[in-house]
Write a structure and sequence with these properties.
Keywords: ATP-binding, Nucleotide-binding, Transport. Pfam families: ABC_tran. One of its GO terms (molecular function) is ATP binding. By secondary structure, the chain is an alpha/beta fold. The protein folds into two domains: about 5-210, Rossmann fold, CATH 3.40.50; about 220-285, 2-Layer Sandwich (Alpha-Beta Plaits). It has eleven helices and 14 strands. The strands form three sheets. Strands 6-7-8-3-9-10 form a six-stranded mixed sheet, with helices on both faces. A hairpin with a 2-residue loop joins β1 (about 5-10) and β2 (about 15-25). The radius of gyration is 22 Å and the shape is globular. The structure holds adenosine-5'-triphosphate. Adenosine-5'-triphosphate binds near residues 12, 15 and 41. Adenosine-5'-triphosphate binds next to β2 and α1.
């Protein structure tokens, strides 16, 4: 599903959570939504899911306004950090409700995901651990197959094996049933390989919206003898670096053109990729 956000403002009393935010997602991809604490990610996803009304600006999904649009309710799913369920009833009740709400619900798939995460239908939601609740939310989010499915740090409560099982399941199911998926996360390195595009927000504003590969191509690790690395990176934007003996590795932000690449090779320097997390820290460092 296509998502268009234009000049979106959301305020809570004196606090401006989203500040004239604009971007468009063409849909049919897995998107990463990144931002530091309080940057507005949850607020944005809540508006996209029609849980919250915009103060001003417009939000459209497949060209339709979102708020109080009943036609979109079954097609848009937001799984929040504590899962999508209330405290009441059992896992079975939660699955039953999700099946009722989601026209694309796949009951067999839900069953296999419950097994994967070690959940049983008779468990009371109230008695579940944080990780189990998150896993139940993930089951509901995946098996619902909503054309726009959003996970708001929904899997943070899960332990690493469960999280990796979620990433694998998500990718496999997305390949079979392509849809628009937005993942908000702080675990950037764990999930960044899933993202086709990344949206980074800071202080309620857009910092970057880019294809993942394009964003990653902006960062380069320059490694070699310390004094040659320093000479090569002089005048470039250096994000940070590490040294081991006389060898140094510096992280550079910005395009390195062919001529410079040639000079690096002549100087015996190695050029390699840097992690998305490092780019994120650089891009959002003072954007709180
Ligand atoms: N219900 C609320 N009432 C008042 N202020 C709120 C409310 N919800 C969010 N805010 C404020 O809006 C801003 C954006 O918060 P939001 O939860 O959307 O950010 P976030 O990027 O999801 O943060 P985090 O990564 O910490 O979960 C913050 O300044 C926050 O304090």
């Amino acid at each position: 599903m296509r998502v268009d956000v234009e000049d979106l403002v959301v305020t809570y009393g004196e606090v401006t959570a989203l500040d004239r935010l604009s971007f468009s997602l063409e849909g049919g991809k897995i998107y990463g939504l990144l931002g530091r604490n309080g940057s507005g990610k949850t607020t944005l996803l809540s508006v996209l899911a029609a849980f919250r009304k915009e103060s001003s600006g417009t939000v459209r999904i497949d060209g339709e306004p979102v708020f109080e649009n009943e036609g979109l309710t079954s097609r848009v799913s937001l799984i929040r950090d504590a899962g999508e369920t209330t405290d009441l009833g059992t896992a079975e009740d939660a699955l039953y409700f999700a099946e009722w709400l989601r026209p694309h619900w796949d009951a067999d798939y839900a069953r296999s995901l419950m097994d994967l995460f070690g959940l049983t239908r008779k468990m009371s939601v109230k008695g579940m651990s944080k990780g189990m609740r998150s896993a139940l939310g993930v089951v509901i989010g995946l098996a619902g197959r909503a054309p726009l499915t959003m996970f708001d740090e929904s899997y943070l409560g899960m332990d690493p094996p469960a999280r990796y099982a979620f990433y694998d399941a998500l990718l496999a199911d997305y390949m079979e049933h392509p849809r628009t998926i937005i993942l908000s996360t702080h675990l950037i390195e764990e999930v960044s390989s899933l993202f086709e595009e990344v949206v980074i927000i800071g202080r309620g504003r857009l910092v970057v919206h880019e294809e993942t590969q394009t964003l990653l191509s902006r960062g380069t690790a320059v490694t070699g003898p310390a004094e040659r690395v320093d000479a090569f990176t002089d005048g470039l934007t250096v994000l940070g670096g590490t040294s081991l003996g006389s060898t140094k590795s510096a992280m550079v932000y910005g395009e390195i053109d062919e001529a410079r690449r040639g000079r690096a090779a002549e100087a015996g320097l190695e050029l390699g990729p840097i992690a998305m997390q490092d780019l994120f820290i650089h891009l959002t460092g003072d954007a709180r």
